[in-house]
Each structure stands twice: as structure tokens, then as C-alpha cells.
Write a structure and sequence with these properties.
Thioredoxin-like_sf; 7-stranded mixed sheet; DUF5106; alpha/beta; 2 domains; DUF5106 domain-containing protein; 54% helix; Glutaredoxin; 302 residues
């Protein structure tokens, strides 16, 4: 009996030591991961400063603008990724402060940032970064009133439905002709797809989404709801397109045209994807299928 008690006591101590060691190991890994992330951020900040340190924007040969500056701007954007939003905004505005020494160079920078950060086909597209660029542009003395108005309108649009914000609510009719509102369809995360039923490239992308086995599984298990809404086009075209969408998706049409008329969403292209959480907050803005799958696979319990 005594040996049995001693064995049990030793087993308990060993288990406690194992659990304690495991916990310390997890904390150590977490701490090392945090240190690595911090080191990466500091390294990128140092590189960003070094890239433009001491550069004289006043003496630039304007004929060499694209050849010299475009690769540097692309490199600059890529180095922003590990930074916090505050750090990236500061880095962008600091660079534009320097570029504003010369009107032609400053204008070139604003336009080139737009090409890479806002163009629908750019792999570097990023609304948060572009908002910082637009904020600088609308405050710049180099911009004429008409250009400032254009950039101010773009800034208002870019700021809508940013990650963390409540997504814009809107009304639509479903395939049965019943009036619905987006906020009514809560309870689980929702993938919102804004599409044009007569757009051939849109149809190809939507079919890729429809064929995703992971997505179908989440929909079947109630882990995700897919809501596809057409904010443009003719009602008859939308009705004819319904057979192309999975039966378990919610298919809607904005009869009133409110989405486009009131610019509720920044529709750079069709289809446009948003991932929305149960509380109607934007999780992913203007995203793609792969990013949605990655997020859901990491966060889904199914």
C-alpha cells in the first residue's frame, strides 16, 4: 500500500512537472515569436529609413522618374507589411513629406501609389495604405482644388467598410421576391459577394467559389453563410443567373439601386468579396477566395 501511495505521488509529481514544463515551453515559444516579430518590424523600419535617407528630391532628373522611382516605391510598399497601422501611416506620410519638396515628383508619387495601392488588378492593393496617401494629398498645397475634390471623394469611399468597422446595411430581394436586409442574416460569419450577373470574368470567379469543398462544408454546418447580391444590371438578367449559384447560398438583387447610388461599397471590380462576422463587423475587405479560406480554416471549429 505504501509503495502504491508513493508511486501515485511520484506519478502526480511527474505529471505536474510535465505540465509545468509544457506550459513554460509554450510561453517560451510565444515569447520568442513575439521577439522575432518585433525584430522584423525594427529591421523593416531601418530599411525604410535607409532607402530614402539623405535623398535630395530637389535635384532629381524628372525624365528619370519612372525608371528610378517606380521600383523604389514598389519596394517601399512591400516593406510596410510587418509594420503596425500607425507605423505604416507614419512611414508613408514621412516619405510624401520629403517628396513634396518638388511638385512634379510629389505628383508622380501620389499617382504611382494610386496605381499600386488602389488599382483593382494590383497585387499590392491596400486601402489602408492608400487612405494615408489620400489624406496627405488632400492637405497638400501642390494639389489644385479640382484634384483635391477628386481625392477627397476617393478618400471618403476608401474609408468605408474598413476592417473592424460595421459593414453598411442594405435592402435587397431574394430569389422568392421577398424583401430582406443584410443585417437580418446574422448569427454566423457571412461571405458577401457583390457581383454582376452579365460579367463573364465574374462568373468564372464565382464558379471557383461555388466549387470550393471547404466553403460548402462550412455552409452545410452553419459555420458560414454566403450572400451573393447583384447591385447592378437588369432584374431579368439576375433572375436568369440564379441557376448558376448553389442552392444554399442567399441570392439577392438590389432593386432600388441604393448600393451604387449611395456608394455604400467601394466597387473597384466585380465580383467584390467581404467577410463579415456575427456582429456585422468587417473582417476582410475587398478580399479573395484564398484569403477567406485561410481565415476560416484558422478560425473555424468545424
Amino acid at each position: 500500500m505504501k509503495l502504491s501511495h508513493i508511486s501515485l505521488a511520484l506519478s502526480g509529481l511527474l505529471l505536474l512537472a510535465y505540465c509545468s514544463a509544457g506550459k513554460k515551453n509554450e510561453e517560451s515559444i510565444s515569447m520568442r515569436s513575439h521577439v522575432v516579430v518585433e525584430q522584423e518590424r525594427e529591421e523593416e523600419l531601418s530599411r525604410l529609413r535607409a532607402d530614402w535617407s539623405g535623398y535630395d528630391f530637389q535635384k532629381t532628373d524628372l525624365a528619370q522618374l519612372p525608371a528610378y522611382f517606380e521600383p523604389k516605391i514598389v519596394s517601399f510598399i512591400e516593406k510596410l507589411k510587418p509594420l503596425t497601422s500607425t507605423e505604416s501611416n507614419t512611414a508613408i506620410k514621412t516619405l510624401l513629406d520629403s517628396a513634396s519638396q518638388n511638385k512634379e515628383i510629389y505628383t508622380y508619387f501620389i499617382e504611382t501609389f494610386g496605381n499600386y495601392l488602389y488599382d483593382a488588378n494590383s497585387v499590392l492593393r491596400n486601402d489602408a495604405y492608400y487612405a494615408a496617401v489620400l489624406e496627405h494629398a488632400v492637405a497638400s498645397p501642390w494639389m489644385d482644388p479640382d484634384k483635391k475634390t477628386t481625392y477627397r471623394n476617393m478618400l471618403d469611399l476608401v474609408r468605408k467598410n474598413m476592417p473592424g468597422m460595421h459593414v453598411a446595411d442594405f435592402a435587397f430581394i431574394n430569389k422568392d421576391g421577398a424583401q430582406r436586409r443584410f443585417y437580418e442574416l446574422n448569427g454566423e460569419p457571412r461571405l458577401l459577394i457583390l457581383y454582376d450577373p452579365v460579367c463573364a470574368p465574374c462568373s468564372e470567379v464565382i464558379q471557383q467559389v461555388a466549387k470550393s469543398q471547404s466553403l460548402a462544408t462550412w455552409v452545410d454546418h452553419g459555420t458560414l453563410k454566403v450572400i451573393a447580391v447583384s447591385p447592378v444590371g437588369d432584374l431579368r438578367h439576375w433572375q436568369a443567373y440564379q441557376t448558376n449559384l448553389p442552392r444554399k447560398w442567399v441570392n439577392g438583387f438590389d432593386v432600388s439601386g441604393t448600393i451604387v447610388q449611395e456608394r455604400l461599397f467601394d466597387l473597384k471590380m466585380f465580383p467584390t468579396f467581404y467577410l463579415i462576422d456575427e456582429g456585422n463587423h468587417v473582417v476582410l475587405k475587398d478580399t479573395d477566395l484564398q484569403e477567406v479560406l485561410s481565415y476560416m480554416q484558422f478560425n473555424s471549429k468545424q
